[in-house]
Design goal:
- By secondary structure, the protein is of the alpha/beta class.
- Strand 5 and strand 6 form a beta hairpin.
- 40% of the residues lie in helices and 10% in strands.
- The protein has one domain: Rossmann fold (3-Layer(aba) Sandwich), CATH 3.40.50.
- Bound molecules: iron/sulfur cluster.
Amino acid sequence: MNLLEKEDLIKVKAEELESASPEEIIRWAVETFPNITFACSFGAEDVVLVDMLQKVSPSTDVFYLDTDFHFKETYETRDVMADKYGLEFVRVSPQISVDEQIQQYGDNLWSVDPNQCCAIRKVEPLTRILSQYEAWITGIRRDQAPTRANSKKVEYDYKFGLVKFNPIADWTSEDVWNYIRANNVVYNPLHDRNFPSIGCEQCTRAVMPGEDPRAGRWSGNEKTECGLHK
Ligand code: SF4
């Protein structure tokens, strides 16, 4: 399927899939684009999607971006999930180690220039892995951030050059937690310690009551996204 054909198909399907369940969207996605992958951050939304994928299409590749800066709880969540589902998460690493980054850019690139740090440890690895696929699935939700408010359930991702599925785009945080409880899904224990959104340890803090759920990401900095989603 060339780009024009994909754009036409997406235009038609975007409307139809808007009212479909996440499982129906995943089913259509994997049947239409067998060369598809899921990007897992081990956050609440993504553990839901791993659980759904295991029920609908367990052979679908699931990868994670290992920045080397994740919380130990995040790595433990990965290991518990891998055991539970018998799933091998594909680890995607930056081209330079933490030591090489410190040598080249100094001790605290994440605080001096977080965009550069994310470019090295997240965006380049994501670009590299997505170049191998025709479509990807994400766990983004529209109400997470203004930058995500217009996400469609299926859209063409011009930034990375492939089809993008956001099966739970219209879910609320409550929907996510209802699914986790109803299906006994493994989740990152940091969520129980006031971390609604979890990224690298250096750039994530717990939020205070009444704060925006993403206020703990790059706190004190204007940055709100890694650069993975438009
Ligand atoms: S979230 Fe922070 S530590 Fe992680 S890659 Fe981005 S700037 Fe670096």
